[in-house]
Design goal:
Number of domains: 1
Radius of gyration: 17 Å
Order of helices and strands: HHHHHHHH
Helix content: 55-70%
Oligomer: single chain
Structural class: mainly alpha
């Protein structure tokens, strides 16, 4: 007899249904607070906070969330710019000031900052489209990483599959920016995006 499929393909910790996990992941994708997601799902704030912490740690571990100071890259923005660094730090401080389930652990601040760096790169995708469309994009990307790289809690993630997804998503994002973003109307900026896709 073959092994029974796990009840939840994306999360290997608590006994939470896949449906409920998707609802929590949607809240995470939308950057909702722990309290908001707990209220929407009827889960306890402790349960949602634990899932959020494990999601952050997992995405950092597989290289989806990276720190600005660890050579993480930003689309169409020069990371050597002092203005970019200042804007990123202001964005991060605003996020954590809203108490989004910040855990008390040695790595918690690093994980939150890596998440902020990742989200900061997504700001242009909220311009020229509805917030729901941008959140759907983020949710689908986060879920895809769990599908191809392995669930939260897996011991050995498929990092090569994750890298392939990152490249595919980068191509999709840069194509959308070239086509639709107000910040990329000039031919120079469009050429930069084409170079990114062809590299």
């Amino acid at each position: 007899m073959g092994k029974a499929k796990p009840a939840n393909r994306f999360y290997r910790y608590a006994k939470i249904s896949e449906y409920m996990f998707r609802r929590v992941l949607w809240g995470f994708a939308c950057d909702l607070s722990v309290t908001e997601v707990a209220r929407n799902t009827k889960l306890s704030t402790n349960s949602v906070s634990a899932i959020y912490q494990r999601l952050r740690a997992h995405y950092v571990r597989i290289g989806v969330f990276n720190s600005f100071y660890d050579n993480g890259d930003a689309i169409g923005v020069s990371e050597t710019s002092d203005a970019y660094e200042l804007a990123l730090l202001e964005f991060h401080l605003k996020r954590i000031s809203q108490m989004r389930g910040i855990p008390h652990s040695q790595n918690s601040s690093d994980h939150h900052f890596c998440e902020s760096c990742w989200r900061f790169q997504l700001i242009p995708f909220f311009e020229g489209r509805s917030a729901d469309a941008a959140h759907n994009m983020i949710f689908n990307e986060l879920l895809t990483y769990l599908k191809v790289g392995g669930p939260v809690g897996v011991k050995a993630a498929d990092l090569q599959a994750v890298r392939r997804c990152q490249l595919e998503f980068l191509n999709r994002r840069s194509a959308w920016l070239e086509r639709s973003s107000p910040e990329f109307k000039s031919e120079d900026s469009r050429a930069l995006l084409r170079d990114i896709r062809e590299t």
